[in-house]
C-alpha cells in the first residue's frame, strides 16, 4: 500500500484540512490498529513506514499525533463533513 507523504505532526485545526482529507485512509488504519491493541511502534511501522528503534521520538510523535487527530475526526470532525454535504 502506498503511504501518502505525511508530516511529523497531524493538524490541530478545529476544521478538517486538506491534509486530513488526503489522510482519511491513514487515520482509519491507525484507528484499526489501536482498536486491535497493536503496539504503537508496530502500527507506526505498518501505517507510516517508520522504524521506532531508529527514530523513537519522531516515530512516537507521528503515531500519537495522527491517532489523536483520527480520534478527533471520529468524535468532532465528522460534523464538518456533514456540513460540507449540506452545502453542495
Molecular structure report:
With 88 residues, the chain is an all-alpha fold. It contains four helices and no strands. α3 packs across α4 (56-87). The protein is globular, with a radius of gyration of 13 Å. 23% of the residues are buried.
Strands, helices and their partners?
Blueprint: H1 18-22, H2 24-35, H3 40-48, H4 56-87
Give a count of the beta strands, DSSP E runs of length 2 or more.
0
H/E topology pattern: HHHH
The percent range for strand residues is under 5%
Unreliable runs: none
Rounded to the nearest angstrom, the radius of gyration is: 13 Å
* Coarse structural class: mainly alpha
What is the share of helical residues? Answer: 55-70%
CA-CA gap between termini: 32 Å
Mean pLDDT: 90
Core attributes:
88 residues; single chain; 66% helix
Summarize the structure.
With about 90 residues, the protein is mainly alpha-helical.
